[in-house]
Amino acid sequence: MEIVTTQRRPRKWLKVLTTLVSVLMTLVGAALILPSVFGLQRFAITGTSMTGTIDYGSLTFEEVVPVSDLQVGDVITYAPPANANVDTLVTHRIVAIHDGVYRTKGDAVPQRDPWEFRLDSAEQARVRFSVPYAGYPFIWLADRETRILVIGVPAGIITLISFGQVLQALRRRSRPTAADPHDAYTPVSG
Fold it and tell me: Would you kindly state where each structural domain of the chain is located, as residue ranges?
């Protein structure tokens, strides 16, 4: 009697779904990596002071330009001076430049920023374009608990599945198998 084994084929919809997810993730990854190839930097907008122009959760793509190219009206991302007591980067519009001293303001706020500053570097990131909502994943991943859920939980599940497969393989290996009559040693008479 011959035993025929058949392999279970994955369901077609599962194969299509995993292919679509793979293609989508590849496109998203390429969209996030390609701009850096062209010299652009990315920043996720975490404030509302530019609402209407660049909303909360947007992702800005910025070109690095010489400071001498900056003009009133440009939107830049910079670190405010230490005495401003602001510990995050700020993306605001330049409203005045006098002898290398800059003043900025958020488009959604009526008053200018309360500080003046100089740019320490010879180059500065200037907003070229933004993509609404694309910054949300970066904002979420900045939160430790979210990172644990998004990265740690799937990694833990994969580890448990792998561990289960190893145990299953060890169990199969330790089981005694029935002797095959064809494997028996037959002495040769001579």
Answer: 9-37, 39-134, 142-172
This prediction has a pTM of 0.69
**Tokens coding 170:** 């060890």
Per-residue pLDDT of 44-70, as tens digits, reads: 999 999 999 999 999 999 999 999 999
Cβ contact 107:51 at 8 Å: yes
Separation between Cα atoms, residue 82 and residue 165, nearest integer Å: 55
- What lies within 8 Å, CB to CB, of 95 at 6+ separation is 72, 103, 104, 105, 112
The superfamily CATH assigns to domain 39-134 is Umud Fragment, subunit A (2.10.109.10)
pLDDT digits (tens, 9 = 90+) for 163-179: 988 998 888 887 665 55
Among candidate residues 64, 74, 66, 57, the one with its CA nearest the CA of residue 130: 57
Cα–Cα distance measured from residue 58 to residue 77, given in angstroms and rounded to the nearest whole number: 13
Yes or no: say if 46 and 88 are a contact pair by the CB < 8 Å rule: yes
- Planar angle of CA 126, 127, 130, nearest 5 degrees: 165
Give the amino acid at 184: A
Distance CA 152, CA 5 (A): 37
